[in-house]
Amino acid sequence: MNKIAIAFILFSFSVSAQYTDITIIKEVKVKNKGVVVSAHPLASEAGAKILRMGGNAYDAIIATQYALAVVYPQAGNIGGGGFLVGVKKTGEKFTIDYRETAPKKASRDMYLDKTGKANTDLSQNGRLAVGIPGSIAGFFATIQYGQLPMEKIIQPAIDLAEKGFAITEQEANLLNSNRPHFQKHNQSTIVFVKDIPWKAGDILIQKELAETLKLIQKSGAKGFYEGKTAELLVAEMKRGSGIITQEDLKNYKVAERKALEFDYKGNTIVSMPLPSSGGVLLAQMLKMSSYENLEKYQQNSTQAVQIMIEAERRAFADRAEYMGDPDFIQDKTSYLISDEYLKNRWKNFSFSKATPSSEVGKIIKQPKESTETTHISIIDKDGNAAAVTTTLNGLYGSKVVVSGAGFFLNNEMDDFSVKPGVPNMFGAVGGEANSIQPNKRMLSSMTPTIVLKNQKPYMIVGTPGGTTIPTSVYQSVVNVIDFKLNANISVNAPKFHHQWLPETVAFEKNFSETTIKELENLGYKTEKWGQIGRTEMILMDNNGNIHAVADGRGDDSVAVE
């Protein structure tokens, strides 16, 4: 195997049966092999192990998600939800929507106080913030495309939870900084809180989570949505103001939706439809920027960035007005991504100045907060491809751990329009289309995407990052297709982000100062962010050569079959 890797041996001391010898691999080049890219080396290795056992990409992506729930608890989960985009070796395309849904007792104004003011603390923290988890149902919906039984696929995660693993410095810092939140929102002792601060190399053992996973291994999806785990989850709701019932859990259903497909310069983009806004935004942004022949400019040049900012501005304005759960609203996707609509939307673009956001939507002041999601890209040796983005929404979700079951619950209810016109934790404004209703799925920005060339997988890509997800995937696609960059440069190049509101454009701290200054001279308001997203990318050519890259911004890692 020809492996080009940036590898760091984090822990090499020996502790019996525990996972302490961890290697982060940032880049590999292989041929006719299965490859897994995820946010954590042990999760990527869990997926690769399943490939070695004869599983395919869909088996491996389930195993990787289970493992992330153990080793990457800030975003990996069984208490949240996600989206899968798949392209089988036969060319069949499919998606699985296991987004969380609003409980039966949820209501449009459930987060408003007596004066009608939105209380976003309730939608972001604690038990009332929790949507009905979809992840486990999603895994069981995915297994129909796999080759191995779930009992085998879940075992690597059980081993990781039961035996324990050495945490990285990043993980230690996150656990320490969130200790006050964990203590505030949990009445019982949880394994994520210690008497002394966490440090790199400490072993995290999760016995309760291991038992929860064993119940799933033994009883299937019913081992989560019914029986002991369901009882523990509902009991956790009753410790606060949570409203999820056993009936809610038992009635949860995934939705298998038609993939959103569109052409971009001879490539077929396959992405997630509503209730993910990501695929729609990606289609809009790519098409609008193509009107200016983006490929003739340099990557991250002033002209290229201006074109892309303005495409982002117009797309996000449409997100706020038109997008939501397609089972509850009129789905206008085909119109929103049509050339007829987008060419008209693009008419007021000018290289001479920034387009005021007031010209594409009503201005509402809003805050900006960070996010934590996670993405997995997988290809197997037979050419089956899978892209999954999954989340608890915020960092460690609602901060609530189900006592006795050992897993974090999401705070996904905040992705609804808590009050139409009021921004959520990521600053995204929503309207009536994304208002709260029982059993409704909240709008998402997750954008798992597979690009086909000659109807075969060419790129598998995705990232965490809340509302920065669609713009980061957008930049990844144009970096490869328009600017002809390789996977490593595409993933690790500095990124930027604009979402209509707020008016400012965010740039990573290492972005070109010359470009930023020239954009400011055109009237753009700018700010610096430490980090935008953590992209996982796999590129394939017609000869079976694979170039897989894990983002350098975190502990992300590649594993090979």
TrEMBL record:
Superkingdom of the organism of origin: Bacteria
EC numbers: 2.3.2.2, 3.4.19.13
Molecular function terms from GO: leukotriene C4 gamma-glutamyl transferase activity
Reported modifications of this chain: Cleaved by autocatalysis into a large and a small subunit.
Catalytically driven reaction(s): an S-substituted glutathione + H2O = an S-substituted L-cysteinylglycine + L-glutamate; glutathione + H2O = L-cysteinylglycine + L-glutamate; an N-terminal (5-L-glutamyl)-[peptide] + an alpha-amino acid = 5-L-glutamyl amino acid + an N-terminal L-alpha-aminoacyl-[peptide]
InterPro entries according to UniProt: GGT_bact, GGT_lsub, GGT_peptidase, GGT_ssub_C, Ntn_hydrolases_N
Assembly description: This enzyme consists of two polypeptide chains, which are synthesized in precursor form from a single polypeptide.
Family affiliation: Belongs to the gamma-glutamyltransferase family.
NCBIfam families, sorted: g_glut_trans
Protein name (database record): Glutathione hydrolase proenzyme
